[in-house]
């Protein structure tokens, strides 16, 4: 599954697949181009391989929180043992994207509003967005990991929305956990829930 398959327009309307228009392609990767929404006609640029959904993104940067878990621990908390599909890393947890992509052989890892895109590769992509609605289709990810700076109620609701039923969301640093999730682990470092 390609990254474009999981993306949606973040504007307030029904979800619909975006149209990809390329201007620069490197192998199978779109380096420059546009994503177009057939419903509202808005266009979103792809710059240096990163889809950008507008506004001032609050990228985890200079004051990014310390993450107390390693990629191996996050893989175990997600409970993924086979390849296929995508895992979403929201915020500063995107720093572990390369390591997680290596551990999750055959699983695409997506960093949303992550601090750095320098290590993007075949199984590790980036997306930027300042919208409250995450620019991902509902029920598309095999796992979602939410960094401590994004662990509030609205972001947990969005993380749950994009997660496949029966799969896990990992919320680092506690947070306001609610929604259609059965919480199976809860401690100050991480909370883990399964989507009902």
Structure overview:
This protein has one domain: 3-Layer(aba) Sandwich (Rossmann fold), CATH 3.40.50.150. It has three helices and eleven strands, in the order ββββαβαβββαβββ. Strands 7-6-5-8-9-11-10 form a seven-stranded mixed beta sheet, sandwiched between helices. With 196 residues, it is mainly beta. Helix 1 (71-78) packs across helix 2 (97-103). The relative contact order is 0.16. The model has no long low-confidence stretch (mean pLDDT 87). A hairpin with a 2-residue loop joins strand 3 and strand 4.
Strand content is 25-35%
The termini sit apart by: 24 Å
Class from secondary-structure proportions: mainly beta
Q: In CATH terms, what is the architecture?
A: 3-Layer(aba) Sandwich
- What is the mean pLDDT? 87
Strand order of the largest sheet: 7-6-5-8-9-11-10
N-to-C series of helices and strands = EEEEHEHEEEHEEE
Which CATH class applies here? Alpha Beta
Give the topology, please.
Layout: E1 19-26, E2 29-36, E3 43-47, E4 50-51, H1 71-78, E5 86-90, H2 97-103, E6 108-112, E7 124-127, E8 141-146, H3 153-162, E9 163-172, E10 181-186, E11 190-195
Parallel strand pairs: 5-6, 5-8, 6-7, 8-9
Antiparallel strand pairs: 1-2, 2-3, 3-4, 9-11, 10-11
Task: Describe this structure in a few short sentences.
The chain is mainly beta and 196 residues long.
Key terms:
196 residues; mainly beta; Rossmann fold; 7-stranded mixed sheet; 4-stranded antiparallel sheet; 3 helices; 11 strands; 33% strand; globular
């Amino acid at each position: 599954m390609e990254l474009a398959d999981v993306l949606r327009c973040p504007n307030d309307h029904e979800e619909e697949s975006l149209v990809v228009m390329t201007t620069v392609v490197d192998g199978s990767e779109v380096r420059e181009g546009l994503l177009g929404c057939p419903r509202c006609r808005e266009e979103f640029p792809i710059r240096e391989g990163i889809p950008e959904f507008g506004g001032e993104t609050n990228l985890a940067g200079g004051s990014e929180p310390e993450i107390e878990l390693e990629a191996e621990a996050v893989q175990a908390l997600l409970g993924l043992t086979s390849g296929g599909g995508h895992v979403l890393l929201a915020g500063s947890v995107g720093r572990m994207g390369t390591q997680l992509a290596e551990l999750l052989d055959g699983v695409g890892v997506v960093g949303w509003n992550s601090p750095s895109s320098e290590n993007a590769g075949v199984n590790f992509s980036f997306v930027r967005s300042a919208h409250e609605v995450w620019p991902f289709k509902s029920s598309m990810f095999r796992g979602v990991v939410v960094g401590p700076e994004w662990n509030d109620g609205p972001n947990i609701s969005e993380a749950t929305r994009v997660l496949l039923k029966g799969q896990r969301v990992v919320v680092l640093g506690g947070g306001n956990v609610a929604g259609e999730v059965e919480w199976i682990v809860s401690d100050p470092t991480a909370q883990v829930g399964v989507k009902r």
